[in-house]
TrEMBL record:
It comes from Streptomyces longispororuber. It comes from the Bacteria. Transmembrane segments: none annotated. InterPro entries: ConA-like_dom_sf (IPR013320), DUF1349 (IPR009784). This is DUF1349 domain-containing protein.
Length: 206
C-alpha cells in the first residue's frame, strides 16, 4: 500500500498523512518505508544564517489522543553524512522536534533536534549496528525521547515541553526521512507500536 492520501497502519489508532516533499511512503507486511530526496532536511540553523523556506523533508504524520508512546525500529540506508531515519513531532510551523538515528557524520548516532523558531542540535550516543528502536512519548504538554538497541531496555535521551498545552495536545507525530548533504536516503520503520500511556519512569530503562 502506498501513501497518496492518508495511510492507515494496523499498529496505530490514527491515520497518517504525508507532508512535505514526496516520500514515496509505502507499507507492507509490517514495514513502513520512505525516502528522502537529495539535500532534503528539516532544520532551522541556530547560528543566524538566512532561512531557506524551501528546506523540508518527507514526513508521514497523524494525531494521537491523550498520553501515548510511539515506538519503531528504524533502519536507514546510510550513504552520506547526516542521512537519518526519524521519529518526528510537530506542534507548529516553527515548533517541532526530531529524534534521529543519523550518520553523524561518520558513525551511526542517536541525535535530537528541538525547534522553537530556530533549531538546537545534540548528539546522545553512538549505535553499533544498522538499526535502533526509537520512542516518542507525551503526557500533557511534556514530551520525552528514548532510544534502545534491543527494543527492551530504553535509554533516556531528552524530556521537554513544546508549544502551549493546547498545541501539545493537538501535536502531530510520525515518521521522517532526511538526506541533508546526500543524494537521498531510504528508511525502513518496523516493529511499530503504540501505547496509550506515559512511561512509568523515564530513567529506569523501562
Amino acid at each position: 500500500m502506498t501513501a497518496t492520501g492518508s495511510l492507515t497502519l494496523p499498529e496505530l489508532p490514527f491515520p497518517l498523512r504525508p507532508y512535505g516533499p514526496d516520500g514515496h511512503w509505502s507499507y507492507q507486511d509490517g514495514v513502513l518505508t520512505g525516502r528522502a530526496g537529495p539535500r532534503q532536511d528539516r532544520f532551522v540553523p541556530p547560528t543566524g544564517e538566512a532561512l531557506d523556506p524551501a528546506s523540508d523533508a518527507p514526513r508521514l504524520l497523524g494525531a494521537p489522543e491523550g498520553d501515548f508512546q510511539l515506538v519503531a525500529r528504524v533502519t536507514p540506508g546510510f550513504a552520506a553524512p547526516f542521512d537519518a531515519g526519524v521519529l518526528y513531532l510537530h506542534v507548529g510551523e516553527r515548533d517541532w522536534a526530531k529524534l534521529c538515528f543519523e550518520r553523524s557524520p561518520d558513525l551511526p548516532t542517536i541525535c535530537t533536534v528541538v525547534t522553537r523558531g530556530r533549531s538546537d542540535d545534540a548528539n546522545a550516543f553512538v549505535v553499533d549496528g544498522p538499526a535502533v528502536w526509537l520512542r516518542i512519548s507525551r503526557t500533557g504538554a511534556a514530551f520525552a525521547f528514548h532510544a534502545s538497541t534491543d527494543g527492551e531496555r530504553w535509554t533516556f535521551v531528552r524530556v521537554f515541553q513544546l508549544g502551549d498545552a493546547r498545541q501539545a495536545q493537538a501535536a502531530l507525530v510520525g515518521f521522517l526521512a532526511q538526506s541533508p548533504r546526500g543524494e537521498g536516503c531510504a528508511v525502513a520503520f518496523d516493529r511499530i507500536a503504540y501505547r496509550p500511556a506515559w512511561p512509568t519512569d523515564l530513567r529506569d530503562g523501562s
